[in-house]
UniProtKB/TrEMBL annotation:
Residues 384-529 form the Thiamine pyrophosphate enzyme TPP-binding domain. GO terms for cellular component: acetolactate synthase complex. Residues 188-321 form the Thiamine pyrophosphate enzyme central domain. One of its GO terms (biological process) is L-valine biosynthetic process. Residues 1-117 form the Thiamine pyrophosphate enzyme N-terminal TPP-binding domain. The keyword Secreted does not apply. SUPFAM superfamilies: DHS-like NAD/FAD-binding domain (SSF52467), Thiamin diphosphate-binding fold (THDP-binding) (SSF52518). It holds the Pfam family TPP_enzyme_C. Belongs to the TPP enzyme family. This is Acetolactate synthase. It comes from the Bacteria. Keywords: Thiamine pyrophosphate. NCBIfam families: PRK08322.1 (NF006187).
Length: 551
């Protein structure tokens, strides 16, 4: 068989289900080999960036990698934004690129560039297959590295002449092992330190959305009552209706949930990625004692210098804490006055605009209240990047992990539509809602054709303000004005018609819930556009600037 045949067999052995991408001449042999696979489905996309975002969402939702594919040169450069987003947001992914023949890579040659070195800064590992007999080892290592905590992207390049070579090899068998667990003595010290606290608080990061970790975290909070503030990417790690859920932290400005952190005498960071929410925003000058429990040691930072640390499987670490809680009944004496006040006040904030009756534009708070009211606990919302992301992070709360997907490490616009395509492929029985600004939506608008071709049931809600709203918001905050950030938009209903989508325009707030229900009931993709009232941006900034923490 050819080397490209062997590579497909190795990917099948690893359990790969999807490869998203745009083929080219230099990976033609791989594509011909892939055509014979009964296991791996190739999804043809309209741009390589969309393919990378689709593979990212597959990885975030399943914990296993999908492939994203591009050819050499511009195909590879088009992939890199989505690959960087996946890697920084801890999603396993295989990046598969073609390359020119190995006989011409040493010199100036058509479309040839050093793709591997380009991908090294945004992947966990990047390599070229120079010898076909190495394919089983390289694929086995690539998938293992991509899945190993913290997960991320891995790049494998296959030159076109190597893909054609004959080879008689078999895939390596897949063997998975349990992750290392924290040391017992470290967990004893952490338990004793928690016992001595009066107002502990948990900051839950991206690592807490793993199903086992979320389960053990909920058990720990039920036993102790300790409140949880979640980063944007940890939404749903505890149920929004639980009394210990203190909602979301991560805005640049101080928000109500941050008051619970201010009042705490111990911060327990679980699965926390500094890339999401920098500790200088909540521990400037190291005023708070910190415990770090995660798959990896703490990053070195002057504002994040843990007193105690436990490194290893996060779910197991929480199980170890739960065992110690059970063996020490009545060990805790906590004061949850501030925690309860934070939950009370933030709950009131979330419900403040649920009964809005406006026409001409719709407040962000109302749009998200209605989305939450219509969507079930297991349904999935995907956020693009823009001003809407800040509102989603603050106002859309979750019952289950991985039901609100926000890019918050690399923060790339254009994420939501392709991400929704992958989510709908994986979860055809769930309601899938992508929320995007008009700017972010138009960055990958071509994937509307992909969604229609696949006949997927998904809804994209576009918040239209005809401008780069988040940039305007930030410039207003810093300079009191903003530069020219306005742009034009298409006729949204004609755009939907052109791509054979269902199209809806809603500018009356009392009609929004019904429109969302209609979209979810429709067969195939639906576009729902609302004129958004971003006057609320600066109003929120003003209110947060005047915030007095509840007591």
């Amino acid at each position: 068989m050819k080397a490209s045949d062997l590579m497909v067999k190795c990917l099948e052995e690893e359990g790969l289900e999807y490869i998203f991408g745009v083929p080219g001449e230099e990976n033609a042999d791989f594509m011909m080999s892939l055509e014979h696979s009964d296991q791996i489905r190739f999804i043809l996309t309209r741009h390589e960036q969309g393919a990378a975002f689709m593979a990212e969402i597959y990885g975030r939702l399943t914990g296993n990698p999908a492939g994203c594919l591009g050819t050499l040169g511009p195909g590879a450069t088009n992939l890199i934004t989505g690959v960087a987003d996946s890697n920084m947001d801890r999603a396993p992914m295989l990046v598969l690129t073609g390359q020119g023949a190995s006989t011409r890579l040493h010199k100036e040659s058509h479309q040839v560039m050093d793709v591997v070195n380009m991908f090294k800064p945004v992947t966990k590992w990047a390599t070229t297959i120079w010898h076909p007999e190495n394919i089983p080892e390289i694929v086995r290592k690539a998938v293992r590295v991509a899945r190993t905590e913290k997960p991320g992207a891995v790049h494998v390049e296959l030159p076109e002449d190597i893909a054609k070579l004959k080879i008689d090899k078999a895939p390596l068998p897949v063997r998975k092992f349990r992750r290392p667990v924290p040391d017992d003595k470290a967990m004893d010290r952490i338990f004793d330190r928690i016992k001595s606290a009066k107002r502990p608080i948990i900051i839950a990061g991206n690592g807490c959305i793993r199903r086992r970790a979320s389960k053990q975290l909920r058990i720990f909070c039920e036993k102790t009552g300790i409140g949880v503030v979640s980063t944007f990417m940890a939404k749903g790690c505890v149920d929004m209706d639980a009394p210990y859920c203190l909602y979301t932290i991560g805005l640049g400005a101080k928000d109500i949930p941050a008051c619970a952190v201010d009042a705490s005498d111990l911060v327990i960071c679980l699965g926390y990625d500094m890339v999401e929410y920098h500790p200088k925003l909540w521990n400037n000058g190291r005023t708070k004692p910190v415990i770090h429990i995660d798959f990896l040691p703490a990053e070195i930072d002057e504002n994040y210098h843990p007193q105690l640390e436990a490194v290893g499987d996060l779910a197991h670490a929480l199980w170890m804490l739960n065992e110690r809680v059970d063996k020490n009944p009545g060990a805790f004496s906590f004061d949850f006055t501030q925690q309860n006040a934070v939950r009370r006040d933030m709950s009131a904030e979330l419900a403040k605009h649920k009964d809005d009756n406006t026409e001409g534009s719709i407040r962000p708070q109302k749009a998200l209240w209605d989305a939450r009211a219509v969507m079930g606990p297991e349904d999935i919302l995907l956020s693009d990047v823009g001003a809407h992301k800040m509102w989603i992070a603050r106002h859309f709360q979750c019952h289950e992990p991985n039901t609100c997907l926000i890019p918050n490490g690399f923060c790339s616009m254009g994420f939501a539509l392709p991400g929704a395509i992958a989510a709908a492929l994986i979860n055809p029985d769930k309601n899938i809602l992508a929320i995007s600004g008009d700017a972010g939506f138009m960055m990958n608008v071509q994937e509307m054709e992909t969604a229609r071709r696949l006949n997927l049931n998904l809804t994209v809600m576009v918040w239209a303000d005809n401008a780069y709203g988040l940039i305007a918001w930030k410039q207003d905050n810093e300079f009191g004005r903003h530069t020219d950030l306005d742009f034009g938009n298409p006729d949204w209903l004609k755009l939907a018609e052109a791509f054979d989508w269902h199209g809806h325009w809603v500018d009356k707030s009392t009609d929004l819930q019904a429109a969302l229900k209609q979209c979810f009931a429709e067969s195939g993709p639906s576009l729902l556009v609302i004129p958004i009232d971003y006057r609320e941006n600066n109003l929120l900034t003003k209110r947060l600037g005047e915030l007095t923490c509840p007591i």
